[in-house]
Amino acid sequence: MKLIADISPSLDLFLLLFFWHCLIGAIATVIAINKGYPRLNWLIFGLLGGTFTFFIALFLKKKPKI
Fold this sequence. Notes:
This protein is mainly α.
């Protein structure tokens, strides 16, 4: 049982950081969708890239409507 108690704080920290990573990626997806970019691509980019994808989405230019 001691092994589980030793791993638990690390696991809690990992899950917390993973949650924030995915949340920031999801926000990046919403920003990109509002600028006219494809939803599925940006959802994948957002969940994998997290904060990096968020900053890319902020600086994207709006896609012109055709």
